[in-house]
What does this fold into?
Amino acid sequence: MMMKRTILISLLIFTAIIAKAQKNTPKSYIDSFKTSAIKIMHETGVPASIVLGIAMHESGCGNSALAKNLNNQFGVKGDKKIFYYKHKRKVVTAYKRYNSVLESFEDFARIMTERKEFNGLIEKLTHFDYYGWAHNIQKNGYASDKKWSKSVLRIIEKYQLNILDEKPEKQPELAQNN
It folds into this structure.
């Protein structure tokens, strides 16, 4: 009887540890932040699929150190050095800290609408043209990796994020691919 109790307690502790260490999945990330991405789209014209797709790509669905410690979903650099602690060690970084994921999304949209490299996209492209947005963002210098826009588009299409760009009052269920 004592052996069964020990095994049961060990199993419960192991399950609790695994549950705590669980990472965001693409589906949980989409479910958590699609409303914020749609809000940003309505306020700025930057497609929700682009906001969410790029955030998923750049932050590993919120699992990167920057996303976890700084709420920085896009790898945006700041104008001063800041620090955070990771595994009890001080990490000094030039990346920007945000108070929330929504604030990170808002700053990304501000970059897309106000920085000279990108501000013409809002007049040139509609919020339905996620393909044009991804290619033009890369072309205008957001990422140096030549496969960046293809990676972002793959995420948008795999999880059908473009559905978020259309008639937000009638949202069909998003794809549940992991």
Observations:
- The radius of gyration is 19 Å.
- Confidence is low (pLDDT under 50) at residues 15-20.
- The longest strand covers residues 77-86.
- The longest helix spans residues 2-21.
